Each structure stands twice: as structure tokens, then as C-alpha cells.
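Anyone up for a design puzzle?
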């Protein structure tokens, strides 16, 4: 019988959401207003794509997906922090996220900044407390690299340069330049999800024969990140605020570098399909164990939010 991937994903989301909710008990002594804002930003309705990726990657290399929930939750904390900061007036200046007022609209800019800071640090606390020193340290390293100056933060700086919000050298808009931005801004965190899932499954094993698995996951994550960004850009052009839960049509108005802006919508969709097939090919070596990851890339192609 064909697995019911939607039901499996829903089960995992429920486990992840429960863990995220309980994780706030780690900072229960924080100011009540800060706790409220953290709860609001972290537990907003979401697809939990990153924790799901972490769980499926763990499973794909022989691990128990439940053991990857804390790692995936830590990535979701970093993701939530990034959204809170990205929505600020100095950055993307958005007032709607996941169908609700953004954190700075609900709680003010100062508390929004501090809420993001608190979620970022809670992510590393969670990894350190939930895993052995070896696995915890490995996961912390992967997440720090992905979220930092050479990853998500650096990619955001490059993105803001194209909008003129950060000073930088004049550049020619190309697909290569766009891919470089999103390999860091979006793709690096996806790569960390898969690598952390691998680390949770493998523990302290360092057999050279296992590294082809990691290379396959890296290639998959590269393609996944680009497909995610292309479909996100397409939603900004073709989506609506009710379905997506956020304002649409913003990218063109701000002069952002996007796939539809460079390639057009039809060519962008074709590019996404090619990359999705490349992702499937990358994980063929994982056999049936990688079926969940294959489903995830297929899901991206039909996403509506």
C-alpha cells in the first residue's frame, strides 16, 4: 500500500508543534511579555518544512525520525527568528505573516528584535540539552554555519543590497547572482536540516562509507532550496493574500531580484521542475528509505502558500 505522506507529515507536525510549545518552558522565568511574543512568533501556523526535512533525512539514513524532532525544532526556532527580523521596517517591512499581524506590529519593534534574539539562542540551548555532547556539538556547528554571516545572514545582506537598503557594489542581475543569494539566504538552512538529521541518525559514527549519503543529502538540499525559492517567487506573483497568509506583489514593487523577474513565470516553473528531478536523482542511492524526501520535493512544486 502506498504510504499516506500527508497523514505522516501531519503526525510529525503535531509532534513538532508539541515540542516547540513545551520548549518555551526552558525560558519560563523570562519576562511575561517576552514569553508571549516568543509564543506568538514561534507557534504561528506554519508548514514546518524545515523540521519535516530533518525528520525525513534522519529516517532516510536509518534513524528514528522522532529522535530528530528536537533538531528540527531548533531549526524552526532559527527560522522563526529570521522571519521576525525580516519583517521589520528596516528590512522587508511587512505587516502580515502567516495570516496574522507580524510580531513587530503586534508587540512593537523593540520587543520584536529581542524576541528574535531569544529564539535564536533558545535553538542552541535546545540542541545542547537534548543530545549527547558529540551530537549536540555537531548540530550546533551545522546550525551556526547555516544561520551566520556565510549563510542566512549573509544572504539577507546580499538581498538587501539589490534593493538598495544596504550599500554595495553595482552588479548585473543574473540567474547566477540570484542563486548565490538564495543558496545562502534560504538554502543553507535547508542543508543544515538534512545534515542534522544525518547526525542524529549516525551519532558518533564516522565510517567513510557513509559519506556518500551525506553528499547525496547535500545535493538534494541544494536543489530543494532553489525549488523552494522559485515557487516562493511565483507565489508572490500569482498568489493571493488569503491563501499565502502574507502580502503578495511586494517583490516587483521593491525591485527585488527574483526568478519570475529574470526568467518569466513559465521558464521559472520549468526550472523548478528540472531541479526537482535533479533532487530526486540525488537521493536514489538511499532507496525506499528516501521516499519521504522525494515526496517533500514533489510537495514544493504544488505549494500554494
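Challenge accepted. My sequence:
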Amino acid at each position: 500500500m502506498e504510504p499516506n505522506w500527508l497523514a505522516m507529515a501531519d503526525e510529525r507536525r503535531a509532534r513538532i508543534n508539541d515540542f516547540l510549545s513545551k520548549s518555551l518552558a526552558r525560558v519560563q522565568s523570562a519576562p511575561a511579555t517576552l514569553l508571549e511574543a516568543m509564543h506568538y512568533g514561534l507557534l504561528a501556523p506554519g508548514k514546518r518544512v524545515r523540521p519535516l526535512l530533518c525528520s525525513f533525512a534522519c529516517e532516510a539514513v536509518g534513524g528514528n525520525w522522532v529522535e530528530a524532532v528536537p533538531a528540527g525544532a531548533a531549526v524552526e526556532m532559527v527560522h522563526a527568528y529570521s522571519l521576525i527580523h525580516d519583517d521589520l521596517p528596516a528590512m522587508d517591512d511587512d505587516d502580515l505573516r502567516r495570516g496574522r499581524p507580524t510580531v513587530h506590529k503586534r508587540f512593537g519593534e523593540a520587543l520584536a528584535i529581542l524576541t528574535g534574539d531569544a529564539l535564536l539562542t533558545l535553538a542552541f540551548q535546545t540542541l545542547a540539552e537534548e543530545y549527547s555532547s558529540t551530537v549536540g556539538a555537531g548540530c550546533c556547528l551545522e546550525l551556526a554555519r547555516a544561520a551566520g554571516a556565510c549563510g542566512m545572514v549573509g544572504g539577507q545582506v546580499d538581498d538587501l543590497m539589490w534593493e538598495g537598503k544596504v550599500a554595495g557594489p553595482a552588479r548585473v542581475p543574473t540567474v547566477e547572482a540570484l542563486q548565490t543569494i538564495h543558496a545562502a539566504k534560504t538554502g543553507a538552512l535547508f542543508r543544515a536540516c538534512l545534515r542534522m538529521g544525518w547526525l542524529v541518525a549516525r551519532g558518533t559514527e564516522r565510517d567513510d562509507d557513509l559519506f556518500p549519503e551525506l553528499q547525496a543529502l547535500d545535493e538534494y538540499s541544494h536543489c530543494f532550496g532553489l525549488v523552494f525559492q522559485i515557487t516562493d517567487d511565483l507565489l508572490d506573483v500569482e498568489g493571493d493574500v488569503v491563501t499565502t497568509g502574507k502580502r503578495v506583489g511586494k517583490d516587483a514593487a521593491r525591485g527585488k531580484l527574483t526568478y519570475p523577474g529574470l526568467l518569466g513565470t513559465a521558464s521559472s516553473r520549468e526550472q523548478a521542475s528540472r531541479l526537482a528531478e535533479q533532487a530526486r536523482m540525488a537521493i536514489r542511492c538511499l532507496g525506499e528509505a528516501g521516499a519521504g524526501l522525494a515526496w517533500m520535493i514533489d510537495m514544493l512544486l504544488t505549494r500554494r502558500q
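A detail worth pointing out: The chain has 15 helices and two strands.
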